[in-house]
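Appendix B, record 7
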Amino acid sequence: METIYLCIVIFLLCLAVFDLFVGVSNDAVNFLQSAVGARVTSFRTILIIASVGVMLGAVMSSGMMDVARHGIMMPAHYSFHEVMTIMLAVMVTDIIVLDAFNTLGMPTSTTVSLVFELLGGTAMLALLKVMGDPTLEYADLLNSDKALQVIIAIFVSVAISFVIGMVVMWLSRIVFTFHYSKHSRYSIAIFGGIAFTALSYFIFMKGMGKSPYLPENLRDYIEEHTNWLLLCTFLVSTVVMQVLHLLRVNIFKFTVLMGTFGLAMAFAGNDLVNFIGVPLAGLDSYQDFTAHAHGQTIDTFMMSSLMESATTPPLYLILAGLVMIFAMATSKKAQHVIQTSVDLSRQDEGDEMFGSSRAARAIVRCSQNLIEGGKRLFPAGLRRWVGTRFNTNEVELQDDKAAFDVVRAAINLVIASMLITFGTNHQLPLSTTYVTFMVAMGTSLADRAWSRESAVFRVTGVLSVIGGWFITAGVAFIACALVCLAMWFGGVIVQCGFMALVVFLLYRSNRQYKAKSAKAKQEDDTFRLMMRTRDPELVWEMLRSHVRDTQSTVCKYIMEQYNGIVEAFATQNVRALRQSQKSMRRELDLLKKYRRQEMLGLRRSPMDLAIERNTWLHVGFNSDQQYVYTLRRMLAPIKEHVDNNFNPLPKAYETEYEPIRRRVNELMRATYEQISTGQYANYRATLAEADGCKDDLSLVRKEHLNRMQKSHGTKMIQVDLVYLNLLQETQQLLSVMRHQLRAAKKFMEEGQGQLQSLGD
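Structure tokens (predicted):
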């Protein structure tokens, strides 16, 4: 029996390594997004600084391990078997939940998932124990007070982080404006002094100051002379910051890098328990059982030892820190999640990936009414002066790819570091994801990054992310409770089954994500550059390149889908028809995204060109959509026919249609080549050939109608009607092709040489 639990412990430790990798892939956004979004330095330098912070925080995080040991459960009333069941259920559930959210690119919370998984597993097992032993009470098995304290702290941090971030950012922008280099002659030293002092207090004095690795007399000295140390730190750092400013050192950059270090350290100290706390608690339980059981069984040996504070060996903490650093540097998922947060907080407009929602529209409308009403309470002169401090046209970005300036990045990091370290020092595992994300949203709102054109989309994004957090809590609780229940009644067999399931799901998830990311990597490069460019003429050239790529890609896609539908009809391949149906639903969503992107580009283009080409841009949009709608009308009766196993397409019909199909393919291929290359020398010949093909289709339709009227009986009526629909929609497909080709030529007909050189 001990061998089985040894295998479980080994599996838990293996999952801890993977959990570290997956968790950091998700949570790296917490301390990297501000520095990456502001582009204060190279990504490599940011990673190095963050890595040092992570390693230092990991080594000093042992105090937080108590949350996993006795923060939720009361282990003195649980046997070794029960504790191991809970630990295994928590880790199995945690891996699946975190990897699912990572794959979706949503910044979920490792803290919330861990807390609610522990709560779900413990609650289920406590319920079973109470039902089996009436002498036990629920309060004896579940640390409800501590659990409630942790849960309240987690969710209250959402509102607190947002409000504090918004207020501090607004005050900072009043002082520095967006043209911060002009208004930071003297104020920058005070800001730098305050930021350095705050970070020093919460990171070094409260974080490292309580480290067991420091001499006790030094810890006591820091505790007794905190106020004096703070005053000295502020005075010295203010003077140093002023000197550095006079030496042309960007204090905001320095603050961002220091804040990245501090937040990485706070993250590791706070969240390391989320990744390795449960496996190490399982290891300690196994070691305690093997050393002190003395003949007791797995069901009678109680885990009172877990009530003691954890003494995590430094080697484990160092190894955990190294895994976290490796995950930061190599994970593609981490970069995906970082991009989600950066996009929601960027200063300029862009592709609003979350779209619109009724709740967001109501919130924005209500907020605008409140703002308009509040403006009347202040004098007009004061309002104008405040407006001059928020002139976004003066924004100073590090380069064209920066999402926001270094002032906002510094505020994000300083506030988030302070809040998270405060929670850690009070043994409240605040969600670093909640805190950093909501601080970033609060600062972006105060910075007027949420314009009337983008506010609805940004609010929808925030609501979606917050909704994902709450879903995380609910899913983690219920899933872990059910897994724990299954393991309790199923025993070793079910436990092994879940372990195999985790391995399979992780393998499949990684394969699917690689395929998805490889496809997504080919998209949006032109658009992102277009949104960062401030020259309207360059925007126009990039917009034309984007439109050309979109329309040519759609044309190629439609050609592939058309051939696939016709072949599936002839071969009765219902699976291919179902895949085509799903593919076209995804394509319509993608076209909506491209439409938003190109409209944003058109608004940033020269006004005269935007007005002149607006019509043809919309005709091109509509043609792309009509392509898909036409194929859907073609597909629907074919799929129903094949799915119901009706009469197959007669060979004579297939032979009759084949020349039409070849001509349609040649026309679509010619359209694709002209749009993709920007060369329209064969434009009129293609249109004439399309008209001729439509005329021939009309003749085939008439012959088929005559054939249907002469036919006796209803045996072939179903397939005859489906074939008639195929002919009709093929005609419509050619009409759409003509519209798309004409719109593309009209939109692109000026400046072909420039466009071609840009493509080269």
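Remarks on this record: The CA atoms of residues 35 and 257 lie 7 Å apart. Residues 751-760 have pLDDT under 50 and may be disordered.
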